[in-house]
Prior knowledge:
Layout lengths: L1 E2 L2 E2 L3 H7 L3 E5 L3 H5 L20 H10 L4 E7 L28 H12 L2 E6 L12 H17 L5 E4 L16 H11 L4 E4 L5 E3 L14 E2 L13 H6 L6 E2 L2 E6 L17 H11 L4 E6 L10 H18 L8 E4 L17 E2 L7 E20 L7 E10 L4 E8 L6 E20 L4 E8 L5
Parallel strand pairs: 3-4, 3-12, 4-5, 5-6, 6-7, 7-8, 8-11, 11-12
Antiparallel strand pairs: 1-2, 9-10, 13-15, 14-19, 15-18, 15-19, 16-17, 16-18
Helix pairs in contact: 3-4, 5-6
The chain binds beta-L-fucopyranose.
Amino acid sequence: MSTQGLVLPSEQQVAWQQLEYYLFIHFGPNTFTDVEWGHGDEDPNVFNPTALDADQWVRTAREAGMKGIIITAKHHDGFCLWPSRYSTHTVKESSWKNGKGDVLRELSEACKKYGLKMGVYLSPWDRNHPAYGTDEYNQVFVNMLTEVLIGYGDIFEVWFDGANGEGPNGKKQVYDWDLFNGTVYKHQPDAIIFSDVGPGCRWIGNERGIAGETNWSTMDTEGFEPGAGAPPTEVLNQGQAEGARWVPGEADVSIRPGWFYSPSTDGQVKSLEELLTIYYSSVGRNANLLLNVPVNREGRIHPNDSTRLMELRRVLNETFDENLAAGAAVREENGPALKRLTDGDPGTFYAFEKSRTSASFTLELERIVEFDRLELQEYIPAGQRVKSFSVEVWDEQAQGFRELARQTTIGYKRLLRFPAVKTNRVRIHILDSRPGPILAGIGLYKAPEH
Ligand code: FUL
């Protein structure tokens, strides 16, 4: 959507962006065979979780502060975690629950119970299906997709992996993306479709969970395709200021070295510091964070992973629970008070005059506060406008402002980390913007020692 040349998000994309952080689960035969890309000829009986507990996944995600779960309903090996009628390589061919099990059913029930959203990863690349590599396969994929879209309640995101390799007969498939996307919208009109080029949200260009410091939610997608035909990774990573489509970034990364569980990585769960860096480089740079925590051979999240998730949650809560700028007076030089920037409500905003491409305003705090994190938010229903900004703090001794940071984009949310400073005045300069910047909030925070 666009007004006056400005590209705007859909209502669904705005709601999606507010989710910020959710769980990725890679689970399937690979979990049991210790490989990342199964060949599709695995005996379905290898899939045999001994104590599958979807409630435990959902509770863990909820306590970690995540808003949803995306599961690999079908990975490249073609194995379906639900009893698909269009494949003979599914849970029903496995001995798990005597072929009567359905992982998607268990997950959807647990998500409903705890109020989390459910999403699905479905790999078009299928190393098992005999029709792969023929025209017929696109319809097979659509049939599988339809089962998933109509059988398990609301699906908030459909994750299309662009990978396109050879199927069992050595042939590659020409994917019919328009047909796939149309199928999603037909059955789940509010779903966000992830791929390298959206249309709902885009891959951030790496699997390290790191968005560009400059990160536009707009990008040109015309002439590009998921997978080999995708835009250059640098473009995916930073978006494009003048891009014609709203396709915000989603940063995916695994908490372990691989996407699937392996006992050999039990001691290689990312450290709290690494996860914090990922958080500040994704959620803190206008991207959503999709953190993969693989389910193990029992069918549960391993305690090493859940412990780390809780450590991360605790630090984030202790950091962001108190906005030291809450209620502070904000004033434009010779201008009006901008109370809405510190009212704690991201739904309210302050719109600078329509013709303005720069602006400066000062936060007057009631007392001297110590902080080492800064948050800025644009009001994205009105698009993304700010191109660069700087932050200054008042130095009592020098009787002047000194620059603390100079950065580029803001978007839905921008978080900055820096060594702690003490001051009672903070000045923000919007150095360059599309006409009429609109801000939704500003926060100052102090992270705990850990
Ligand atoms: C990639 C896949 O090839 C990996 O196995 C994993 O699923 C990752 C999230 O996407 O394209």
